[in-house]
Amino acid sequence: MNASISGKRNSALSRPFLRLLPLWLCTVAPIAQANQPTATQQLRSAVEAQLSAEIAVWQQRSGAQIKEIVIEPRLGSQLQQQAPCEDELAIGSGQGTPLGHIQREVSCPSPRWRGYVRARIEVVAQVPMAVRRISRGQVLSRQDLVMAERRLSLADQDLVFRQSQLIGQSARRGLRPNQPIRHSQIHVPHLVSLGDEVLIRAGQGDFAATMTGTALENGAKGEGIRVRNQSSGRVITAYPISNGIVETRF
After folding, report:
1. In CATH, which of 3.10.450.50, 3.40.47.10, 3.40.190.10, 3.90.1210.10 is domain 37-185?
2. What is the distance of C-alpha 24 from the center of its chain?
3. How far, in Å, CA of 248 to CA of 239, rounded?
4. Cα separation values, 104 from 14, 38, 113, 120, 124, Å
5. Class of domain 190-247
6. Domains of the chain by residue range
7. In whole angstroms, what is the distance from residue 134 CA to residue 177 CA?
């Protein structure tokens, strides 16, 4: 009797719940969908993460002291209309310096779709600049340089970012003050210049001999240059080891 009464009570209690179940499911489903990121949100997050990683690699390689990074993904209407990706998005990596306007391929494995996303990357970094005009051939010292902030673009990928890379280097051409310095504007100082009379050292140890020659081109330390032996008139390849002194290598 009691079991029968208990069964009826359970049945009576379950009927209102069953009537409310569809309403509850209809309420939960939109909440779950609202918590799921859209394809646009997924793309922005994935692109920003990929480009941030590329900037970190470039920063380590170049030595840039970055102060500010702005990454603005620009998604086409076709990508924004895609269904959210159920798996991790794949973002193609770039080959060049991650500055300025770039483009990356993006793909989703499920549901399968792919496309291209563009982005604008803006970086503010500290760069060494000359504090005064530097003449051609002048060797740079620490007193010639100062660090200053600069907003970088793709055209700045050849800039020198470390002061240590500039100290002791020679200006290939005149450098203007308050302007960043490019790798193409500097070189290792010449120990021998075109037309210089040089001392040629040949051989090693007790078998070393010296003679005079004329440099036929400029040369930095250890750089092979053409030198004419003044005694024989023969042109040889020699290597500057100090100011006005070169050596042959066999």
Report:
1. 3.90.1210.10
2. 52
3. 6
4. 56, 19, 14, 11, 22
5. mainly beta
6. 37-185, 190-247
7. 8
Q: How far apart are CA 91 and CA 135, in angstroms?
A: 46
Cβ–Cβ under 8 Å, residues 85 and 125:
no
Position of tokens 């990706």?
85
- pLDDT, one tens digit for every residue, the chain (250 residues): 444 434 444 444 445 544 554 554 454 444 444 567 899 999 999 999 999 999 999 999 999 999 999 999 998 888 888 999 999 999 988 777 899 999 999 999 999 999 999 999 999 999 999 999 999 989 999 999 999 999 998 888 899 999 999 999 999 999 999 999 999 999 988 889 899 999 999 877 667 788 999 999 999 888 899 999 998 999 999 999 989 999 998 7
DSSP conformation class of 180: B
Q: State how far the Cα of 98 lies from the Cα of 50, in Å rounded to an integer.
A: 10
Separation between Cα atoms, residue 250 and residue 242, nearest integer Å: 19
Q: What is the pTM of this model?
A: 0.67
